[in-house]
Structures are given as structure tokens and as C-alpha cells.
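Appendix B. Worked example

We walk through a single record from start to finish. Start with the input: the chain for Virginiamycin B lyase, Belnapia arida, length 330.
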Amino acid sequence: MQRRELLALGTGLALAAGRAAAAVPPGFRLTWFDATTPGSSRVGSRDVTAAGDGTMWFCGQRNGTLNRLNPRDGSIRVVRLGEGAAPHGVIRGPDGAAWVTEGGQNAIARVDPADHRVQLWRLPERFANANLNTGVFDRQGLYWFTGQNGVYGRLDPKREAMQVWEAPRGPGAYGITRTPQGGLWYVSLAGNHLAQIEDPETGRVRIVEPPTPGQGARRVWSDSAGRLWISEWNSGNVSMHDPRDGSWKVWRLPGQRPRAYSVWVDPSDKVWLTDFAANAVVRFDPADESFLSFPSDRAGANIRQMDGVPGEAWGGESGTDRILRIQYGL
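Next comes the structure step. The output line below is what the pipeline stores for this chain.
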């Protein structure tokens, strides 16, 4: 496994492989891990999440795998999800397992953290080709998920019971999150809106309109106060909705034509985004409304959904088959 690091020095100049490289803000270290394994070609390394033991799960959308990266030595354990698999999102569940929105098999997958055994729960035939996207667990241990072809649903792992609903405005259901207060919210990329799942029993949804028309709301993440941060693909904005008073705030990412793909809020409530146009990860500090940019050292990185642990932001470079770790607060 190849590993490449950029470490910020006192001057802000980074060194990589013994030569000068791009500037990195002081207090940060960037490390790239090769996501390929012997015999593999394109992996399509995309959504990531922490496994809880220092390793990181990441989806291999192109080769139908879930992978477990050990950053201590760069080794990868490959888990094949099944024939035709094309996993999109992964999160760690309350049971410690990896839970995957498996679009290729139109199923929710669970990968056991101990023996890596794969279980599948397929969507009803009525919702074939849902284009599954993202999942989250609620306080009751139910797994909620979205599908871009206009669906959202829930799985009760204990009863192995699944319910799926048509999204109220058709295609577009994409990122989903849970607030500390227990609220469930998703965004619609094609539908350009934020939606609250008001009644988890019936699946009833309430639409909330963002202030920017046609913004292309792609991902959503809650901060510690329950404020909802949204990456807007079409507008290049990051927006924030506070359900407590219904207010909105909007900031445009730096650059000429930003394209905000993912959003993740770290434990200190700093907001991390990916900008495909800038080929960079962007960190936004709501306290002083400042941006820091971390460009990739390779073109076409295309980082999908980020995640992380205290002191570390992680993302999968789907275009380069690498995993990026940004250590902060050094």
C-alpha cells in the first residue's frame, strides 16, 4: 500500500516525497492511502465511515466491495457484497456493524465487524432500481434510507421488516441525517428541497424550501445544536437551516464556479465540504465565516461523502482510487 503525506510546517509549506509540494495550512496533515489491492483495477472509492476501532470502512462502488482500511499499516480487508454490487453509502450502526446502501442489488447490506459476513435485505419489487443513496439510524434503532429514483424507507433489523414510500416530489432523495434531538431529515438533489420525516410511523414528510431556488441540495448533516448544514451542488453554496426558529443562512464556497458535493460536521462544529470544481476539500468555520481549502495533489479527485473522528476528516477520492485523511489541530 502506497501512502503519501503532506505535513504543514511552521511556514505553511508542505513536503512530500522529499520535495516541495502545495501549501497546507499550519496545524494540518494530509495523507493519501492507495485504495486498490493486488489484482484490482478501478475501485471507485467513495463514501467512508469509521469502524470504531481505528480502521475505516469505504465503499468500492466500481468493484462491488466494502473495504476496511487500517491506517496504521495501509492494509485493506476486502469484502465482496455480491454479484452486481455497487455500494453507495456506508455508516456504522449501533450494533457496531457496517450498514450499506447497496444500489447494485437494490438492497440494504449489513457487514459484520467480526467475521465480515454479509446480510442483504432487498427492497420490494415495486421499488426496483431505487438507486439507493444514504442511510442513518434513528434513536429506536431503525435504519432509514433514501433512493435517488424517488424513494425513502426504513428497515427494522430486529423484525427484519422494511417499509418504503414514494418521495412526495418524485426523484432526488439523496443525503439523510439525524439531529441530536432525534429529528430525521433528508435533502432532494433533483427536487431542490429539504424534507423532515415528521411521523416515523406513517412516513409522513414535511417539505422545507431553501432560500436559493434550484440549488440542488445534495447532502445534509446536523451539528451539535441540531442545525442542518446542506451542500448545494447547483448553486455552489453551503446553507444552514435552524429548525428551532425556521431561519436560514447561506454562504458561497470560494472560487468562480464551486460545486459543493458533500458535507460533514466535525465534533467541534466545523463544517467540511468537497468542491468538485476546485478539486478540493473545503473547511468552513461558522464562528468567523472563514474557508480553508485543501486541494488534491491529483486531478479529478472527486471526493464523495466525508466522515471522520475527532481530529481527523476522511474522504474517498472516487476519481483516483485513494482515501484521504486530513488530521487537524496538530
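Two observations about the output. The CA atoms of residues 85 and 274 lie 25 Å apart. The two ends are 25 Å apart (CA to CA).
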